[in-house]
Amino acid sequence: MMIRKIQKILKENPHFFQYILKIIPIDFVCESNLKTLTNLIQNHYKTFIKERDSFKIVLKRRKHKNIERNALIERLASGINNKVDLENPDKVIRIEILGNFSGVSFLQKKDIIHKVD
């Protein structure tokens, strides 16, 4: 997986990506509408979030204000029976909305790379 390769490079040389602000892995790309996003997440979350895992949803929007933030998060979370943990989740569903397209990522804690100062 690409995340593991990037983590290895950063471990060997922490300043290798000094001019990169962030890297966001995307598992799926779809249209930016409520129905499509809901269907995509409902069809795929069970392979990623196990029965006892907690989760949170992170939503980032750019160039798209038609989908109301809280309504989307509530609708998506209501279809997932796992515990919500906003502070220390086992898994993160990250949704990046950019105009008419959205990227959806299913992440674990170890997949999130933080900038080294």
Short description:
By secondary structure, this protein is of the alpha+beta class. It is 31% helix and 24% strand.
Question: What features would you describe in this structure?
Answer:
31% of the residues lie in helices and 24% in strands. With 117 residues, the protein is of the alpha+beta class. It has one domain (24-111): VC0802-like, CATH 3.30.2130. A hairpin with a 2-residue loop joins strand 3 and strand 4. It is globular.
CATH architectural type: 2-Layer Sandwich
**CATH class, please?**
Alpha Beta
Mean pLDDT: 88
Overall radius of gyration: 15 Å
Our count of domains comes out at 1
Fraction in helix: 25-40%
Q: What is the CA–CA distance across the termini?
A: 25 Å
Biggest pleated sheet: 4 strands, mixed
Class per helix and strand makeup: alpha+beta
Instruction: Choose one word for the global shape.
Output: globular
Output the number of helix runs. 3
Instruction: Say how many strands there are.
Output: 4
Q: SSE string, helix = H, strand = E?
A: HEHEHEE
Low-confidence stretches: none
Instruction: Describe the strand arrangement of the main beta sheet, using strand numbers.
Output: 1-4-3-2
| CATH fold category name | VC0802-like
Strand proportion, as a percent range, falls in: 15-25%
